[in-house]
TrEMBL record:
The keyword Hydrolase applies. It comes from Asparagus officinalis (Garden asparagus). Belongs to the peptidase S33 family. This is AB hydrolase-1 domain-containing protein. Gene3D superfamilies: alpha/beta hydrolase (3.40.50.1820). It comes from the Eukaryota. InterPro entries: AB_hydrolase_1, AB_hydrolase_fold, Serine_prot/Carboxylest_S33.
């Protein structure tokens, strides 16, 4: 059973699944900081009615990677909300991505700038995230959020960096997809695309995997042409120029200082995909394990995990395994 109510710039959806109501608030107005969805567990509003402040609801922020969007986390966030109905989950489109691509942002477009955007958003919403989950580029964004501000981040805060290291980005070997080459290839395509199939074929011909090609074309939307009704072209939902800058920053940004000197109250979890398309160098693994030894405080620390039977796209390749890992961070009721 489903119901929905939509207003000019705000939509609320409620879906009844296993007797648990999930509330989804979606804001894409260009006047905001970033486009986002707020997925709330079924008991959030009930708890808000009795707590001192509705903004004290335990909140997790889910961050996508380069060329992704908040939709990458949609079904996974709903699953989390069903299992942990006292939590709410903030999904954002990072700058230059998804619906945030239409929101004007001053450069340079960097990991730090993307992190500051998210910090501004949670501050505007008056939320205090207890969990940060970032995939790939989003992993460094999460670390940068911890690096830049004590507030509005709460303590304790748990950070999950999914298939990404704090420092140098080491691409995979031959036969594997390389994001930098993908961005360069897409930048050479015309702004108006006549057929999704043509783009998919071109990507495969260039040596990119079919899975990546199919994922890329999901970022095409019908163009708003006012000309002939027979014109059914497509355009990209993202800003490739901004994304190219962001990926360069991703390659260059070094956040080892956060990992090797973890702030009190912060627990950083690294999750390596067993079949990662990135190279996890031995020296990176050794530094993370050394950081594990240094972090002795119970409310602060570093942990290393390996997600079996998964490539880089962890939430798609092994959602059950990922859910099991992340669930550890939601099995507590934070004290405010």
């Amino acid at each position: 059973m489903k119901s929905s109510r939509c207003y000019r710039r705000f939509c609320t959806h409620m879906a009844l699944v296993d007797d648990r109501v999930i509330h989804l608030s979606s804001v894409t107005t260009s006047k905001g900081v970033l486009a986002y969805d707020l997925v709330q567990g079924g008991l959030v509003r009930q708890a808000s009615a009795t707590d001192k402040s509705p903004n004290d609801v335990p909140t997790a922020v889910l961050l996508h990677g380069i060329l992704g969007s908040r939709k990458n986390w949609g079904s996974f966030a709903k699953r989390l909300a069903q299992e942990f109905p006292l939590w709410q989950f903030l999904l954002v489109d990072l700058r230059s991505h998804g619906d945030s691509a239409s929101i004007s942002k001053r450069g340079p477009h960097t990991v730090a700038a993307a992190a500051l955007d998210v910090l501004k958003l949670v501050g505007q919403l008056k939320l205090t995230p207890r969990v940060l989950v970032g995939h790939s580029f989003g992993g460094k964004v999460a670390l940068s959020m911890v690096d830049q501000a004590a507030k509005p981040l709460a303590r304790p805060v748990r950070v999950w960096v999914l298939d990404s290291t704090p420092g140098k980005v080491r691409p995979g070997g031959s036969g594997e997809d390389h994001p930098g080459e993908l961005i360069e290839f897409l930048s050479k395509l015309p702004r108006e695309i006549s057929s999704k199939q043509e783009v998919l074929n071109s990507l495969v011909q260039q040596g990119f995997s079919m899975d990546v090609a199919r994922w890329v074309v999901t970022n095409l939307r019908p163009s708003n042409n006012t000309g002939s009704l027979s014109s059914r072209g497509f355009s990209w939902v993202f800003d490739l120029k901004g994304i190219a800058e962001m990926f360069k920053s991703y390659e260059e940004t070094n956040l080892w200082k956060i990992v090797e000197n973890v702030p009190r109250g912060v627990h950083v979890n690294f999750l390596k995909a067993e079949r990662s398309l990135h190279r996890w160098a031995l020296e990176d693994l050794q530094r993370i394990h050394a950081a594990e030894e240094l972090a002795s405080d119970e409310s602060a620390g570093v942990e290393m995990h390996v997600l079996e039977d998964a490539g880089h796209w962890v939430q798609a390749d092994n959602p059950d395994g990922l859910f099991k890992f992340l669930s550890k961070s939601f099995r507590f009721r934070p004290q405010f």
